[in-house]
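Example record

The entry below shows one chain as it appears in the dataset: sequence first, then structure tokens.
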Amino acid sequence: MTGTVYKSTGSWYTVKTLNGKFYECRIKGRFRLAGIKSTNPIAVGDKVEFELEEKNNTETGVINHIEERKNYIVRKSVNLSKQTHIIASNIDLVFLLITIDSPPTSTSFIDRFLVTAEAYSIKTVLLFNKIDTYSEDTLFDVKYLESIYRAIGYECIEISAATGVNIDKVKTLMEGKVSMFAGHSGVGKSTLVNAIEPTLDLKTKAISEQHKQGQHTTTFAEMFDLGFDAKIIDTPGIKGFGVVDMEKEEVGDYFPEFFALKQDCKFNNCIHLNEPKCAVKDALEADDISYSRYRSYLQILEGEDEHYRTDNWDEVQ
């Protein structure tokens, strides 16, 4: 039998078949280790083949094959820095939720996420949530960030999951697609999902006053069928986003504004650090490239993992 993984809790996977029936499935121990570097060999969104078995009058499945993935979003495993964790696979569109405060989303986090999405050819839309709660100064920060990312080519939408501002725009983009919602805990992913499809009634929690960071309400990724020809994957809150499996020479290719200038650099293998006649460095000097983007690029090149664990939104320059 074949189906799509809708939910993963580590040892069991909920799989939906083409005829709409759900089965609880597991994988064999050897299969778990065979040539897979990830901490989770099977992810939500995977297309799998499985066989049914019956024990104690309960029918379950044993997964024996994963079809080739169209794409996937991967990050460093939280506990095992040398291993990766696949958040979800076979995604048409990712919505990255961003908040300026309560909790703050750093530009470093945004850029690391976008680099990974670019590397796996996944379109990303930036959603600036909670605009109904922001002061005039904070809204200025939102507009400034939007100007940076729109100039690169990313679609940016200001939303309020709580009051419904621009939710229809989001729903229109989702039609006919498998979409993933991502962001820090507390940025409003579950609230947004509930605004889009109230019948799901996902759990939400208030922001922790002590830390001004979200409390984890989603403990595993899960796919949901919506009532308007769309599917969503809700994900756990991501505190940090470590970039993995990327050579220094290719990192710049996943910054679209760097890649567009690469042909104008004197050296074909320019990594935009200290090389002479570097078009990227020239653009930076001319303020044609954002300093915050270049700073994120340097952090990724230097492998400064402590930066991707930082939640403070320091003012971009």
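Notes for this example: The mean pLDDT is 83. DSSP finds ten helices and 13 strands in the chain.
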